[in-house]
Amino acid sequence: MKKIFDIQRKFRFTVYVLLIVSLVTIGVSSYIFVLSVKMVELSKQKIYVLDNGKSLLVALREDISENRDAEARDHVKRFHELFFTLEPDKYYIENNVREALYLADRSAMEQYRDFKENNLYNQVIASDISMTLQTDSITLDFSSYPYRFSFIGKQKIVRKSNITIRNLKTSGFLRNISRTDNNPHGFLMEDWRIVENKDLETIKRKSF
């Protein structure tokens, strides 16, 4: 009987030892896994470059927030190109305006309605007018939020008889929002308005 009791005690002891070893192994494995994941994430944020071919330097990859300036400029530029690029095609105009309105608040919608009420789009279609926009400069102020911007560009209006060049100045603010398929930069233009839009020159086209 004593022999059987000793065997049972040794068996229980062996089970306890195996259980403790298993728990320790699981704990160590979990720690190594978490540490490995952190090291992989850290390595992704580093770029190894050669210094005159002699030594390796580690440069931290730029955080995405440091690219906000470039994204903001592209957001403003994209909106103006969509909003002011017109062709004598109803569906082309509607598609451009629809894409532009995803990038701005109601101030852009109000300007669109003003253009529509003034028959701008009907005149473009009826008179076979083409309008394009060239960006000259975009100024951003990140010192306060929402971010103030100003846009300066030139419109080229091509008619059958002449070509008119107009200057375009606008201003507004940029607010951070979530990125979407229709707004990939994650900005929303607010309080957008046209500051100036007047003719610079008109060139007669040659008749054929």
How would you sum up this structure, described in words?
This protein is rod-shaped. The protein folds into 2 domains: 2-60, no CATH class; 65-204, VirB8 protein (Nuclear Transport Factor 2, Chain: A, Roll), CATH 3.10.450. The termini are far apart. Mean pLDDT is 85; it is low at 53-62. Helix 2 (68-84) runs antiparallel to helix 3. By secondary structure, it is of the alpha+beta class. It has helices at residues 2-44, 68-84, 90-101, 106-117, 120-126, and strands at 46-51, 55-60, 130-141, 147-158, 162-176, 187-204. A hairpin with a 3-residue loop joins strand 1 (46-51) and strand 2.
What can be said about this structure in brief?
With 208 residues, this protein is an alpha+beta fold.
Biggest sheet record: 4 strands, antiparallel
CATH topology of the largest domain: Nuclear Transport Factor 2, Chain: A
The shape is rod-shaped
Please tally the β strands and state the result.
Answer: 6
- The named CATH superfamily of the largest domain: VirB8 protein
CATH class label of the largest domain: Alpha Beta
Strand content: 25-35%
Q: Give the CATH architecture of the largest domain.
A: Roll
Mean pLDDT: 85
Main β-sheet, spatial strand arrangement: 3-4-5-6
Question: Termini distance?
Answer: 120 Å
Output the structural class: alpha+beta
> In percent, how helical is the residue content?
40-55%
Radius of gyration: 32 Å
Number of helices: 5
Low-confidence stretches: 53-62
Total individual domains: 2
The H/E string reads HEEHHHHEEEE
